[in-house]
Amino acid sequence: MIKNENLKNGVIFPRGAKNDAYAKYFIGQSYLQGLVADSKIDVGVGNVTFEPSCRNNWHIHHDGYQILLVTGGEGIYQEEGQPARHLVAGDVIVTHDGVKHWHGATSNSWFSHVAITAGTPEWLEPVDDIQYQKAEEDFK
Amino acid sequence: MIKNENLKNGVIFPRGAKNDAYAKYFIGQSYLQGLVADSKIDVGVGNVTFEPSCRNNWHIHHDGYQILLVTGGEGIYQEEGQPARHLVAGDVIVTHDGVKHWHGATSNSWFSHVAITAGTPEWLEPVDDIQYQKAEEDFK
């Protein structure tokens, strides 16, 4: 059974359109609603919604950071060399400069977070099915 | 009738404790739950909940900015010399460096927002009852 399908309608913030701009850095369908993109502000803010099993590639924020504010559903966050974490609404993640990581939905739930991002992302290899299944086993 | 009393229990993020640290810069009771306070990150993130009629003093963010992500209830945002704005869940406010402003709940509703703040605040005079009532009339 798929959980939290109501996230298709957004949680507080709009779900946004299909995230075509970043699709090449994701496995599965994600949606992006920009919330802040302002030349005078050194962070960008966006609401990202992931369908079940959708996740982004491994990536690094250089000369910056990322903060995730989890708004709904169930997700996964993993830093390289660390066990995966299970995320639910209200969880907050800080990814420091230079840390390789990925995030996405669990296999049986939609997931959404607000992302506050500074610096320049470097997109790396996808999280393949074996890595993804192992990540889910870390918290089951 | 007071609206959105459920915000007393938090919206996604915890309501937090009474905001004693900043009480001298507020009229009325606010609550603060810190979400990110990290020496490696140049913004602070917190969830602020306002009881009805609660508002902060006029203030300025120097060498920085503030982003408000409205999570629930009904609120007010005003920049000096501008009409007040009525805020509801999903609204996003960006306050630029040096802009004098205040925010708070409407007189008949609880209100909550996540605040992302950079720089140094300068706290100024309170929003007195006459200013507050006039602000509410701006959008009624």
From TrEMBL, chains A, B:
PANTHER family recorded: BLL4564 PROTEIN (PTHR43698:SF1), RIBD C-TERMINAL DOMAIN CONTAINING PROTEIN (PTHR43698)
The organism of origin for this protein: Pediococcus stilesii
The Cupin type-2 domain, residue ranges: 48-108
Lineage of the species this protein comes from: Bacteria, Bacillati, Bacillota, Bacilli, Lactobacillales
Protein name per its UniProtKB record: Double-stranded beta-helix-like protein
Pfam families for this protein: Cupin_2
Cross-referenced CDD domains: cupin_HNL-like (cd02233)
